[in-house]
Specification:
Residues 50-139 form the SWIRM domain. By secondary structure, the protein is mainly alpha-helical. 43% of the residues lie in helices and 9% in strands. Strands 1-2 form a two-stranded antiparallel sheet.
């Protein structure tokens, strides 16, 4: 089961979800291997324009570590959502692998599911879900 940052806790006799900190990120080499194993069609990025908006100014990530691992359109999305390249890549792996797990069990992977799987605010999770849906990577 994929880690979703939520664990059940009993409070006053009722089971309530409790967010726990995410485990430390894996090494970038391992992260990139896992992303490569997803066999994502990168050619779609040539023909798509990100339709993602966010409040505030984009974050400048051009000098960030691992920036070179992002496609320019992915870098635009990460910058717009004010995510570092490492955060974007980690969330990409989490969302796409989670969506595939849902698909294997014949369940739809909805925006609310994406929000539960990522340790960030629900608005950013929703925007990432929209972006990965636009790319066709969340089938």
């Amino acid at each position: 089961m994929a880690y979703n940052g939520i664990t059940p806790t009993v409070v006053a006799g009722k089971i309530k979800p409790t967010r726990i900190p995410i485990p430390p990120p894996m090494k970038i080499e391992d992260l990139m291997k896992k992303i490569a194993q997803l066999n994502l069609d990168q050619n779609i990025l040539k023909n798509i324009t990100p339709n993602i908006t966010w409040k505030g100014n984009p974050l400048f990530i051009g000098n960030s570590i691992h920036y070179d691992l992002l496609h320019p359109k992915e870098a635009l999305v990460a910058s717009t959502l004010r995510l570092t390249p490492l955060q974007y890549l980690t969330y990409k792996l989490i969302l796409i692998s989670s969506a595939r797990g849902y698909s294997q069990r014949s369940f739809p992977f909805r925006k609310s599911d994406a929000q539960k799987h990522l340790p960030i605010d629900v608005n950013r999770s929703s925007k990432l879900w929209e972006w990965f849906t636009q790319t066709g990577w969340l089938k």
